[in-house]
Amino acid sequence: MDFTIPENLKLMVETVRRFVKQDLEPVSQQVEEEDFIPEELVRKMRELGLFGLSIPQEYGGLDIGALGECLVYEELSKTNACFRTRIGTNNGIGSQGIVMDGTKEQKEKYLPRIASGEWTSCFALSEPEAGSDAANIQTTAELKGDHWALNGLKHFITNGDVADMAVVFAVTDRKKRARGGITAFIVEKTFPGFYVGAIERKMGMRGSHTSELIFDNCLVPKENVVGGEPNVGRGFATAMKTLDKGRLTMGACALGAAQKLLELSVGYAKQRVQFGKPIAEFQAIQFMLADMATQIYASRQMLYHAAWLRDTKGTSVIKEASMVKVYCTEMANRVADMAVQVFGGMGYMKDLPVERFYRDLRLTRIYEGTSEIQRLVIARELLKE
Ligand SMILES: Cc1cc2nc3c(=O)[nH]c(=O)nc-3n(C[C@H](O)[C@H](O)[C@H](O)COP(=O)(O)OP(=O)(O)OC[C@H]3O[C@@H](n4cnc5c(N)ncnc54)[C@H](O)[C@@H]3O)c2cc1C
């Protein structure tokens, strides 16, 4: 086993660490209050290539592999989570369907724009009646001449309001549904009949918006079926593959946030004095710090190992990726809870970032497949073996 991080990835991580420290962290609180990321910062993210971490180099991306992506996300997640989410859809759910299943023409047309960050992409699967049960989507697509007419409502779409395009899933055969009746479409925001609906009000993740997307006889050219004509009806597989691929990075985000919370907690415990001594001298506090550090250590090993398996062996890591997602996100939620406890009343105040991490991390157990769905995937894979 060799856990040495390759030099090129170390350099990338260093660059991101500097960017977080110098550019993102100083405005993190402002972004939280204004619920908006300044355009200047998005421009810097583009310059650093952060929108194209997972896009093949022939289409202008950095293609730094699963481990590289995880390392970058880990660093980026040590500050306000909205920054990572801003680049997240381009690297993950908004692009991978095209990377894996798109035609050559689709890749040539869309991936360079996604990789450079010139365009923001998003992923539109969830609907009011179809969350975990994604096969129950009601949005339909009907072939009318050279176009598909899409009708329906998507909700909870990350970056929906800033997206220039969306990978949208719609029913093309009601009888077949997930078994050959759902199709993936690339929909540009300028296509007639495509509207951004309400921006949803959330518990956290301020600075990152989720919105409804409305399709009202939205006309999508035939050539925008992901993968072209032969892939009509194969969209559900594209959606599931896309979500599978994102699970490791979600673990990395949780890990980075947990690491930051540990560092903040150690610092606070050393300087907060009660009963005449720093609270770090109380064993109750020490045990919380020890539990945080131990669980972070365990999470990091499983994350890096699964990423290494994917990069070097090309192994299918469906089971491991779900294990990483469920373990790391639940670990980070426990760490956030302990961090609030170590900070006492200050952990509950908006003056410090701990309460923001606590709220933002709650989401990681819900989106891109809830913890319960991850456990179903793990069990299914186990029982198949
Ligand atoms: C902030 C945010 C951003 C999001 N971004 C996107 C996005 O960009 N694109 C997109 O398409 N979607 C997005 N989503 C949707 C997200 O993926 C869903 O919220 C998630 O899949 C859960 O679906 P649901 O909310 O409908 O919950 P439900 O599916 O209704 O689940 C409710 C509860 O029931 C449990 N449950 C459901 N089925 C089972 C089962 N078979 N066995 C055991 N337990 C079960 C769930 O685990 C959960 O605890 C986002 C959601 C949020 C909150």
Write down the domain tally.
Answer: 3
- Order the strands across the largest sheet as they lie in space: 2-3-7-6
**What is the beta-strand fraction?**
5-15%
Largest sheet, described in full?
A: 4 strands, antiparallel
The rounded distance between the terminal residues' Cα atoms is 25 Å
Ligand roster: flavin-adenine dinucleotide
Shape: globular
Number of helices: 12
Provide a compact summary of the structure.
The protein is 50% helix and 15% strand. It is an alpha+beta fold. It has a four-stranded antiparallel sheet with strand order 2-3-7-6, with no helix packed on it. A three-stranded mixed sheet has the order 1-4-5. A two-stranded antiparallel ribbon has the order 8-9.
